[in-house]
Design goal:
The chain is α+β, with helices and mostly antiparallel strands and 312 residues long. The chain contains 7 helices and 16 strands. It has helices at 3-16, 109-113, 122-134, 152-156, 256-259, 267-282, 304-309; strands at residues 47-60, 63-66, 71-77, 88-89, 91-92, 99-100, 104-105, 139-144, 149-150, 168-178, 182-187, 194-198, 218-223, 231-242, 250-251, 292-303.
Length: 312
């Protein structure tokens, strides 16, 4: 469906819903059930959106994390088509995470992201190999640390006029978990996050990365009733990409209470040794031009009033 037709149809739908009766609080039903966690009762929200990433990868320094579990981004926005170069916050989902990113396995496990130095204290060295021999698996989880910014229009129609092509801006930290790494090992922090600016057009990254192309996918207007404007937008086969972002170093790695070390080791010394080993192995911090995010999947977009009025 063309940009003009989709824009006109959605605009007409949004204008027409003002006269519709307001439903009692409940759970959205039928085709609208997929938007059940949208903040559709917020008077500022006119549009519900849900995007599900089904495949792709996240390359940080020398490590590539495959996306093999669905990542769901959902919430509400004020408008589908803000003015050019204007981005708006994604209003948080209600009753579910706005960004749901299941832990994914890090290739190589603990051996893949930690290279013990020869000068490590023997108890720490021993603890490392004890953990490797019992639980080598390491999981990585993306966590949002700032309000997500969006431009649905850019996602559906990548700008060709040289303006900012960002469709989704994510400020993230990546949590690494393993008994040796502990529960507070993160790549990036709330104060110094990994900032990814995803687009569906073609990137212009710094070297050594080369341009890569995303895709807005195929958007169709799915009618729900005999009224042609009682409908939602279904997007299949989209690809959101960015290979121009930098990645800060890891910190907080190493958990003295789980290592079983028989002699006292100061927490800050332990953290420095283990975090340093993670940074050395993974190649952190990693400058812009050496990291890549590719998120492939599908999306759905609907007028919040239709979602609200389907609730039973």
């Amino acid at each position: 469906m063309s940009k003009a037709l989709i824009s006109t149809a959605l605009a007409t739908a949004l204008a027409g819903i003002a006269a519709m009766p307001v439903a009692m609080a409940g759970t959205p039903t039928g085709p609208w059930a997929v938007f059940k966690y949208c903040p559709y009762n917020d008077p500022n929200v006119t549009t519900c959106v849900i995007n599900t990433t089904t495949s792709g990868s996240f390359t940080i320094g020398t490590t590539t994390l495959p996306i093999d579990k669905p990542i769901v981004l959902q919430g509400g926005v004020v408008t589908i088509a803000p003015p050019s170069n204007t981005f708006e916050p994604l209003y948080a989902a209600v009753g579910a995470p706005t960004l749901s990113s299941p832990p994914g396995k890090v290739p190589g496990g603990l051996l893949g992201i930690v290279n013990p130095a020869p000068d490590w204290p023997f108890p720490l060295w021993q603890a490392f190999w004890n953990i490797v021999n019992s639980v080598n698996d390491v999981t990585a989880t993306m966590e949002s640390v700032q309000t997500i910014q969006t431009s649905l229009a850019n996602g559906l129609y990548p700008p060709a006029d040289g303006s900012d092509p960002t469709a989704v801006r994510l400020a993230l930290r990546v949590r690494l978990q393993n008994p040796f790494l502990g529960s507070s090992c993160y790549i990036g922090t709330a104060q110094n996050p990994v900032v990814v600016k995803l687009q569906t057009g073609t990137t212009s990254p710094p070297a050594p990365n080369q341009p890569i192309a995303g895709s807005p996918g195929t958007a169709n207007f799915i009618t729900v009733t005999e009224d042609p404007y009682t409908a939602y937008i279904d997007v299949q086969g989209s690809s959101y990409v960015d290979n121009s972002f930098s990645v800060p170093k890891a910190s907080g790695c190493g958990n003295v209470t789980l290592l079983g070390i028989p002699i006292p080791i100061l927490t800050d010394v332990l953290e420095a040794l283990v975090s340093g080993a993670v940074n050395l192995k993974v190649g952190l911090p990693s400058a812009a031009g050496k990291n890549t995010a590719i998120l492939n999947g599908n999306a759905a977009i609907a007028a919040s009033e239709y979602v609200r009025n389907s609730a039973q």
